Amino acid sequence: MAIPGLENPWRNLPEHPPFVLEIDRPAVHRFNAKVGDALKIHGELLPEPYVGDPAAPVILLNLNPGFSEADNDFYRDHRLLEAHRKNLLHEPTEYPFYFLNPGFDRTSGCLWWDNRLKQLIATAGRVNVAENVCCVEYFPYHSMHFRGGVQVPSQEYSFHLVRRAMERGALVVIMRGKRFWLDRVQQLSAYQHCHVLKNPQRVTISEGNCPDGYPRVLERVMRGETG
User: Fold this and answer.
1) Is the model's pLDDT at 172 over the cut of 90?
2) Alpha helices for 58-211 (secondary structure H)
3) How many CA atoms lie within 13 A of 90 on its CB side?
């Protein structure tokens, strides 16, 4: 699927590590040269600027993909790698939110998302959630912790996806990084379809953690419609 208005930079992602876009390399190298391991950007892992169909009726805003040694399991499954590449290019897959594909259920990313979307999956069904939820990360590259202090050109494409979603009336839930998101996508502060988790440390899309927004999330997922 083509996204009008801005070229997708992830078409230029290298085939081999480090998996860092050429336009992002100077900023990533400068940042890594001055921080310790806890904040280091890991280019040996494939970036995850977004997961799912950007035309989905529910858009989750997260901070950045984390890092652990278990993430290397990702690279042992060629089907998962193929789904990841297709996701970056907005190409169709059986499960657009590919981390919810039950065939990939043993990887760290799949386990993480299953826990975060557990209540929604139990109520709406795995396929409905995979087709109607998209997550956009504020920063696309992996790190153990993220506190800001670095920006890369490719982020503009992610912000563009969020603005396009708002133009069509998508429901937005800020999971983590509220101050970062409001700084870079300032329209969010006045957007009527935006919700924020009560406890961003828990990062679960649930009735308890998003009491005002969860019923609307569930409705959008079940209907499969934006407005």
Assistant:
1) yes
2) 78-88, 108-116, 118-124, 126-132, 155-167, 178-184
3) 18
